[in-house]
Amino acid sequence: MKSATTAQYDLIRGIWRENPVLIHLLGLCPALAVTNTVANSLAMGLATFFVLMGSSLLVSTFKRFIPHEVRISAYILIIATFVTIADLVLAAVVPEIHKALGAFIALIVVNCMILGRQEAFASKRPVSRAALDATGTGIGFLIAMLMMGSVRELLGNGTLLGYSVFGAGFEPWIIMILPPGGFLTLGVFLLAMGWWRGRTEGAQARVRRWPHGVATRRAA
Amino acid sequence: MSDPRFELTASPHLKGGATTRRIMWSVTGSLVPIVAAAAYFFGLSALLVIAAATAGAVLTERVFGTPGSLGDGSAAITGVLLGLCLPAGMPMWMAFLGGAFGIGFGKLIFGGLGQNVFNPALLGRAFLQAAFPTAITTWPAAGGSFTQLRGDNFALPLMRASSDAVTEATPLGLMKFEATSTPVGDLFMGSTAGSVGETAALLILLGGAYLAIKRYLDWRIPVAIFVTVAALSGILTAIDSTYPGPLFMLFSGGLMLGAVYMATDPVTSPVTRRGAWIFGVGVGALVVVIRVWGGLPEGVMYAILLMNAMVPFINQATQPRVFGRSGDGMVTA
Amino acid sequence: MTIRGAPAWRLVTTLAAAGGMAGLLIVVVFEWAEPRIEAHRAAVLAAAIDNVLASPAHYDTLYVVDGALRETPPEGVLERDLERVFLGYDESDVPVGFAVTGGEPGYQDIIQLIFGYDPGSGEVVGMEVLESKETPGLGDKIEKDAEFVAEFDGVQTPLVGVKQGAGQGDPSEVDMITGATISSRTVIAIINNRLEELGPLLDTYPATVKR
């Protein structure tokens, strides 16, 4: 029972409560740079997911053989390998998206979210838990990317995944597909997250103060 | 409280009658003739655009601002000023959005009146410029009957404006792309293409003079801007006569409106007198640089926004010496 | 030299082993991906040449070497490092024109384009933007505005950019895009500059004399 909850927690933690982009503010470079369309966000999210999963599995498997002194070099080497593979595969399979993402695929290697998960989690946990953590974090990153991409493509181009939403007469908000649109969208999301967290934490504080609920207090 | 002889309060003990509320509504009052001129030149469309921008600003302040903050009138001014620097043919939904953005992201996000770094009206305009570059550079010609719309003001929200209005290049656009000058008399009276409120230089100057006499705006800032622009463009014309002359530079585009009403925003301009001069010279120099060498025909908006960002540094650099301390802040006694 | 903790040889061997495995993995994937990437690149180029020369039956690749056009690249030089132009022929093997690539900084970033040039008439016969990051909605009209692209179907060189509607009907006029003057001018400048460089070579290339 106990281990089941741990496993569940490993999996769901990264998706929302510790979302890498929206809560930890990691991986902002791709989140700002390539989320101008849903397709680009999806490709970047999946590529990052692949790199994170591959690296976590390898790091967790070989953690005993990697000496502490060279661990960062070894992690970067492993991450860079998967990034290069992702780069080549994207270029061969979806060249248009590869062109749109440009240098940002290669830059996955310096996505601190990935190195962070190796250092903080995969290098200290069994392979199964590392896989769950990578899945959760990867999905969390993908969700954040898709949220940004949907808003920006919808307002900036009037489409979602290339399908017209508002019809032909739509006036695109050009700013949304330009870099400032990324900052604006992310800013609004962070604002909303902060507001939401403030509310829930406020509610938790109230619960701590009156563990039996506000109703009890009123009754008393 | 009821006994005036025994009032115990913290300093300051002498207060002028100029409250934020009073200043703001005076500024709004001084804008009335400019709005009227806008209506004269661009008809009903001008009023629609100004009304939409103001509604966007005021509603956003009402919904997200601190309760009662609407009463100081600053949101209304932001809206009217934004409306004045938009083209008359702009769809109302865009003007509304610009007003909402200016107040929401230009002011409230920093904590409301007095906390913002950038002039909210100009930030709203910068957003519209980046979001709808075509709509904001479609300039209807001045003149025509009052009821004739100067563009598709009633385009449905999110929808593109149908483009069947009579358009005309602005004097600055003519200068930049076709090297054609416009008579300064036309510029002075306002019968040229441009944003709804930027064309009537005369009325803007009168409004500014009124506010300066009432000491509701710092006259140093507009004067510094005018002198800098005139001097720099005078030098440039003297070197090469294809550059536009000082009079053209002063009276074309949004320079008058920007210098008098936007650059002097008390929140986003320096508090010291020396700072005001530095700020004005900076804006003037940037305006000339952007207009003459930049890719855009007009640069007043970006010039003011850039200098807004410098204001904290200007304030810091121009702090007056504190009594009893040397210039470097050390206690001398 | 020893480092506290693991001995130095272990650190080195660990990294060496990891590097070796990484290299092996990458080589395997590269072997699979490379032909696909090359095929795609060639297909894009072929499509562009097809577009700007109005579907030639076939085309030759010519290499610009030391101020002359050659049909074969010199020994020991990688083909992709050379400047190339493409000579298209119609069904009866008559040359129809050259496809030339070029790039210069536009409003945002370098604009890369390819255009067709007919030395016989001295006309540009087509233009396609290969790569640009111009402002969406304004500058990107240089590739998305069909009317602007069509301006390059048969226009006398050197090109002259004119404001929309201000043309005198001259055969070398290209109507520029309102609101995207810089991007439009760059496209025109790229073509003019490239023809200034290569024009004499193209005009005197023997194959065209056959006509």
Unreliable runs of chain A, pLDDT <50, ≥5 residues? 213-220
Q: Residue share in helices of chain A?
A: over 70%
Q: What is the helix content of chain B?
A: 40-55%
Q: Sheet with the most strands of chain A?
A: 2 strands, antiparallel
Q: What is the top-level CATH class of chain B? A: Mainly Alpha
Oligomer: heterotrimer
Give your account of this protein's structure:
The complex is a heterotrimer of chains A (220), B (333) and C (211). Chain A has helices at 2-13, 28-33, 38-61, 71-93, 95-101, 112-120, 127-157, 174-177, 179-209, 213-219, and strands spanning 159-160, 163-164. Chain A has 220 residues and is an all-alpha fold. Chain A has one domain. In chain A, strands 1-2 form a two-stranded antiparallel sheet. In chain A, helix 3 packs antiparallel against helix 4 and helix 7 (127-157) packs across helix 9. In chain A, 41% of the residues are buried. Chain B is mostly helical. Chain B has a single domain (18-154, 161-316), classed as Orthogonal Bundle (Ammonium transporter fold). The termini of chain C are far apart. The interface between A and C is medium-sized, with 25 and 26 residues.
Set down the secondary structure blueprint:
The complex is a heterotrimer of chains A (220), B (333) and C (211).
Chain A: H1 2-13, H2 28-33, H3 38-61, H4 71-93, H5 95-101, H6 112-120, H7 127-157, E1 159-160, E2 163-164, H8 174-177, H9 179-209, H10 213-219
Antiparallel strand pairs in A: 1-2
Helix pairs in contact in A: 1-7, 3-4, 3-7, 4-5, 4-6, 7-9
Chain B: H1 20-64, H2 74-84, H3 92-106, H4 120-131, H5 171-178, H6 184-189, H7 201-213, H8 220-239, H9 246-251, H10 255-262, H11 273-293, H12 300-317
Helix pairs in contact in B: 1-2, 1-3, 1-7, 2-3, 2-4, 3-4, 4-12, 7-10, 8-11, 11-12
Chain C: H1 8-52, E1 58-65, E2 68-70, E3 83-89, E4 95-105, E5 110-118, E6 123-131, H2 141-144, H3 146-150, E7 155-156, E8 160-162, E9 173-175, H4 181-204, H5 206-209
Parallel strand pairs in C: 8-9
Antiparallel strand pairs in C: 1-2, 1-3, 3-4, 4-5, 5-6, 6-7
